[in-house]
Each structure stands twice: as structure tokens, then as C-alpha cells.
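Residues pack. One example:


***
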Amino acid sequence: MKTSFLSSTLLALAITSLFIACNKEAEIGPNDTNTVVLEFENRVGTQPLVLGLTTYKNASNEDFNVTTFNYFISNIALKKDDGTVLKLTNQYFLIRTADAATSRVELKNVPAANYTEVSFMIGVDSTKSVSDVGQRIGVLDIASYTNDNMYWSWNSGYIFMKFEGTSPVVPLSTNGTRKFEMHVGGFGGMTSKVTNNLRTVTLALPSSATVRKKIAPEVHFFTDVAKIFSGTTTIKLAETNSIHSPSAAAPIVNNYVKMFTVDHVHNEKD
């Protein structure tokens, strides 16, 4: 009986200690911050996107492979469970499939809270696009050779998404290739006459991202390239295989805004 009583007491103490420890982790200090990671996994339907020789099929049953797939993410906002929104301004990220490290977007010094929704812009907003070149550094450096030339020098604007590859249905070019190129840009500007292809994606999280002093959440996204070909408009490579003008890109834009989904959230301890 004494042994049983002692065991029960130790168990109760252990449970109480665990409860207290968990409560302390759940507490939010007034200055507590941590990093939130947005991880983008590029796919084609349910298949991982692999650059090069891997062949995929689009909604029109056309074979294609991908050689380049890049896109800008900016103007990120995180919505708290109390309805308030944290806007993370002046942060721009370029996701390049050729560079796996770019798939992890790190948002530093995010205030501790429970976040239930994330939104972001695909592209580079007009304010930054027309700002002084000296203010456009990092992935926005127009002279950089590490960003796959995501800038139209002739059009003075960033390419929001660059999608390139080959397909047997694309007409043979003069240099003997069957290459498709979809380059989307167009930041709008101050007049309605300028094409605005900026789009904002807003997604509810399947579970809260709980930022704490010792908890740094990771939000895992799927980016489905197949959505570029289907949605508001069905895109056939046999007919649409060269997009280099903002005014011609609207069908692509209205499709690719649907290519993002949230798969899961990890609330990892530091």
C-alpha cells in the first residue's frame, strides 16, 4: 500500500510539473518574439516539381517539362486569432526552384501570438518597383546575376513569375527547340491604363501558428504548377506558349493565384 501511495504521489507530481511547464510555454511575454518560416514546396499536381527531364501532363493532356520556375513573394501579413493583422512590410522573397534554400522564407522577430491566417502578394508592388534603385537590394537588385534575370529592363518592371520549359506540342522554333516561356509582370502604376497583374493570396491555416519565446512555427505550402494551365481559363501550350507582355498575362495570373495551398503547420520548439 505504501509503495502504491508513493507511486501515485510521484505520478501526480510529474503531471503537475508537466502542466505547469506547458502553461509557462503557453504564456506570452510583452516582448516575446520568434521566427516564422513559410516553406514553399513546388509540385505538379501530386508530384514534386523536378527541373529538367521529368515529363508532366497538364489539364489538356499535353506533355511538358520545366526548366525554370521562379516567383516573388512580398507584402506578407499574418492574422491573429483576435482578428488583428500583423503586416510585414518591405520584405521581398524570390522562390527559385533551382535553389532549394530559397523555398524557406524566414520572417524574423514576429510577435508572440496565435496566428490563424496568412496572406501575401505574388510579385513586387508598385511603390517598390518605382523606388530608387539604391533601395532595391537583395533579390530586388536588378544588376544581380543570381536572380535568373527577374527584371524587364525594356519595361522597367519585375517579372513576378517566370515559368519556362519544353513541350512537343509547342511549334518548332527557328533554332530547333520547342520551348515555352511565360513571364508575368505588370505592377499597375498610377493610371488605370497600365496593366496591374499584382495578386494577393489569402489562406486560412489548418491549425494556429503559435509563436512563443521558445516556439518557432513553420507553415508548409504546396505550390501547384498545374494550376497555371487550369482555373478561370484553360491554357493550352499548343496555343499559348510565349507570354512576355503584361497585357497578355491576365489569364495566367488569374490561374496561378489559385496554385497555393497550406498543407500543414509545425509548431516547433527552438
